[in-house]
């Protein structure tokens, strides 16, 4: 009888902090041990001890559940962080590539436009110079022809007017 009380109390001492139904069952078991007869006591002791162990086992699984839940939450947070970081990095790379492509394309378009504009200006200037040169040549030719004609006419007129 005394041994059973010691076992129950030692079980409780090993699991300090157990309260509620488990503690009440331990107290009842120790009270019953002092008042019950030997045969009846053995069956009751065994049942009480089993019930106590089940309650204690139920209490001791709570920290395990908390640990598992905490590990699961931490794993979810880490996984989510890795996924978000990966998506952010991929988005930054894609955005940067698109921006660089747009800048290069725009630069090529602007450069091509400037080159085409300069070529058009040079062509127009060349055409103007050529046309001006042609016009000057024509005017010079006309003036030269007029001058030659005038000289010829003057020479003919003068040669008929003065007898030699």
Task: Give the helix proportion (percent range).
Answer: over 70%
Q: What structural class do the secondary elements suggest?
A: mainly alpha
Oligomer: single chain
**Measured distance between first and last alpha carbons:** 181 Å
Number of helices: 3
> On the 0-100 scale, what is the average pLDDT?
76
Which geometry do the CA atoms define?
A: rod-shaped
Q: How big is the Rg?
A: 58 Å
The proportion of strand residues reads: under 5%
Unreliable parts: none
From N to C, what is the helix and strand string?
Answer: HHH
Describe the sheet with the most strands. Answer: none
Got a strand count?
A: 0
Keywords: Membrane, Transmembrane, Transmembrane helix
Transmembrane segments: 55-77, 83-106, 113-136, 142-162
What does this protein structure show overall?
This protein is mainly alpha-helical and 164 residues long. It has a domain at 1-63. Helices cover 93% and strands 0% of the residues. The protein is built from three helices and no strands. The chain has helices at 2-14, 21-35, 38-161. Helix 1 runs antiparallel to helix 2 (21-35) and helix 2 packs antiparallel against helix 3. The longest helix has 124 residues, at 38-161. The radius of gyration is 58 Å and the shape is rod-shaped. The termini are far apart. The model has no long low-confidence stretch (mean pLDDT 76).
């Amino acid at each position: 009888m005394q041994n059973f009380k010691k076992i129950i109390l030692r079980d409780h001492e090993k699991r300090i902090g157990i309260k509620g139904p488990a503690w009440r069952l331990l107290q009842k078991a120790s009270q019953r041990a002092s008042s019950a007869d030997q045969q009846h006591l053995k069956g009751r002791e065994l049942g009480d001890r089993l019930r106590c162990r089940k309650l204690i086992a139920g209490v001791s699984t709570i920290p395990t559940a908390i640990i598992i839940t905490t590990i699961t939450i931490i794993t979810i947070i880490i996984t989510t962080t890795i996924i978000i970081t990966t998506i952010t990095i991929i988005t930054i790379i894609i955005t940067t590539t698109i921006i660089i492509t747009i800048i290069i394309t725009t630069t090529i378009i602007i450069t091509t436009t400037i080159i085409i504009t300069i070529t058009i200006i040079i062509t127009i200037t060349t055409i103007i110079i050529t046309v001006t040169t042609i016009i000057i040549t024509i005017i010079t030719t006309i003036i030269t022809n007029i001058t030659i004609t005038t000289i010829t006419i003057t020479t003919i007129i003068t040669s008929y007017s003065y007898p030699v």
